[in-house]
Automatic annotation (TrEMBL):
It holds the Pfam family Glyco_hydro_88. Keywords: Hydrolase, Signal. This is Glycosyl Hydrolase Family 88. Residues 1-18 form the signal peptide. The active site is at 109 (nucleophile), 168 (proton donor). GO terms for biological process: polysaccharide catabolic process. The keyword Signal applies. It comes from the Bacteria. One of its GO terms (molecular function) is chondroitin hydrolase activity. Belongs to the glycosyl hydrolase 88 family. InterPro entries: 6-hairpin_glycosidase_sf, 6hp_glycosidase-like_sf, Glyco_hydro_88, UG_Glycosaminoglycan_Hydrolase. Gene3D superfamilies: 1.50.10.10. Substrate binds at residues 109, 168, 227, 239, 243.
Length: 391
């Protein structure tokens, strides 16, 4: 298989890449203007931008919140694209705001909290301070791995269950792979394989949709399959499916083990071929929500999926690759339209509107979410890089 399916298209479908449907510069310029405003309204580094409350007020959260790293990560992406040093300064400040979370062993979300800001920061600057923070954080994250069960524990407790693991946890593995390469500690690598393989075994249904929460008992026995943020235990929660697609795409990139590529493709196909996926490819918050088409959309799920598909494109054959690229491009077109993108100075200076955090918990329903912005900007950069490489 060729490394990039695009090479196989040169003779037949070059036009797929010849004309960009997304004006990336325009969208990054807009994101920059919004986030300039966001910086002015957020002088307090102890509270990170998160969302909007039901009463319309801004919702900020402490650095211990799982989303605390996304704002800094987005600022690094703006610096990467624009090369403007003001974004580097802002990104450093907002990354260092979450520095203390490197010692946090009470959460599985250190990949989001540390790798999104410091990982991007280190990639772009090679600042040794960032590396040390992340290596400490990786050790903290690894304390939540139980070798007898084979997975990283997510929440400390869920309902009556003591060892819940959520599909979101797949997003931590990129962080641990990085830590393994940089430190030479192979345990991080082995841990990641174990988590991915155990999740592959237990987290998916025959139709390739993902459960949200798998609850483990003694010896790694699965004792319950649940949801916390989806419509029902057996439904396909849109962002959970997105995390899964992204996570197994990363697994293939880091290991080149084809079983992970096959899994990522199965998960992507289940998402894209679902009869309840709207024509604009921005999913309802849950594919099985009871009142479709009168259910909220989740722009965050579309942003995560678009970013994942743009990477998955590179590893897939010509037909699948074209499908993934076209689908990601359509998602970005939709997210960049007035239907989902805020007007300048509105939406509390977040970029995207219409995301859903946890509707069953009546939390963050049809609001902006900081991680929707992060993955949207990431997807824009990935799209731009693909287009530039294959012009």
């Amino acid at each position: 298989m060729k490394k990039y399916w695009l090479f196989a298209l040169l003779g037949t479908s070059l036009n797929v890449f010849a004309q960009s449907k997304i004006d990336v510069k325009k969208e990054i310029d807009f994101a920059s203007k919004q986030y300039e405003l966001m910086l002015k309204t957020h002088p307090d580094y102890t509270k990170t931008p998160q969302s909007v409350n039901p009463d319309g007020t801004l919702r900020d959260m402490p650095t211990s919140w799982w989303c605390s790293g996304f704002f800094g990560g987005s600022l690094w992406y703006l610096y990467e694209y624009t090369k403007n040093p003001k974004w580097k300064v802002a990104a450093d400040k907002w990354s260092m705001a979450v520095e203390k979370e490197q010692y946090n062993t009470d959460t599985h979300d250190l990949g989001f909290m540390l790798y999104c800001p410091f990982g991007n920061g280190y990639r772009l600057t090679k600042n040794p301070k960032y590396k040390e923070i992340m290596l400490t954080g990786a050790k903290s994250l690894a304390t939540r791995f139980n070798p007898k069960i084979g997975v990283i524990k997510s929440w400390n407790k869920f309902q009556s269950y003591d060892y819940p693991v959520i599909i979101d946890n797949m997003m931590n593995l990129e962080f641990l792979f990085w830590a393994s390469k940089v430190s030479g500690n192979k345990e991080f690598y082995k841990l990641s394989l174990s988590h991915a393989d155990t999740t592959l075994k237990n987290h998916f249904r025959p139709d390739n949709s993902s459960f949200h929460v798998i609850c483990y008992g003694d010896g790694g026995k699965v004792i319950a399959k649940k949801t916390a943020q989806g419509y029902a235990d057996g439904s396909m929660w849109a962002r959970g499916q997105a995390w899964a697609i992204y996570g197994y795409t990363v697994m293939y990139r880091e290991t080149k083990n084809r079983k992970y590529l096959v899994q990522a493709q199965k998960l992507a196909d289940a998402f894209l071929n679902h009869p309840n996926l709207p024509a604009d490819k921005v999913p309802y918050w849950d594919f099985n929500a009871p009142n479709i088409p009168n259910e909220e959309r989740d722009a965050s799920a579309a942003a995560v999926t678009a970013s994942a598909l743009l990477e998955l494109t590179k590893y897939s054959g010509a037909a699948k690759g074209k499908t993934y690229f076209d689908s990601a491009e359509k998602m970005l077109e939709s997210l960049s339209s007035p239907a989902y993108k805020a007007k300048l100075g509105e939406n509390h200076d977040f970029i995207l509107m219409h995301s859903v955090g946890a509707k069953p918990l009546k939390s963050e329903v049809d609001v902006p979410l900081v991680y929707a912005d992060y993955y949207y900007i990431e997807a824009l950069l990935r799209y731009d890089n693909l287009m530039k490489k294959h012009k």
